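debug: dumping io for the single-chain case to check the tokenizer round-trip. Nothing else runs in this session.
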Amino acid sequence: MMRRVKILVSGRVQGVYFRVFTQNKAKHFAVKGSVKNLPDGRVEIIAEAEHITIDKFIKWCHKGPITARVDHVDIIELEADEVLTGFEIR
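debug: decoded output
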């Protein structure tokens, strides 16, 4: 069963290649969606995959790449309102 979530990551997550590492990890896990920087300094990730895969991806988001410092992660469940293909940086 597919699960779609919005993941909001706070900390030192902009200017440290967080989006590129996130895209690479999403491709590794076959997660579809997108990642973008927000004006408030957080990173927003929209991710969709099987439940177990999303859980693994969320676990990675709590750590992030070595260049980042993740202070807080919020998870918001979403409805699948459009078809997602691939994983893009916005």
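debug: round-trip ok. Strands lie at 2-12, 32-37, 43-50, 69-78, 87-89.
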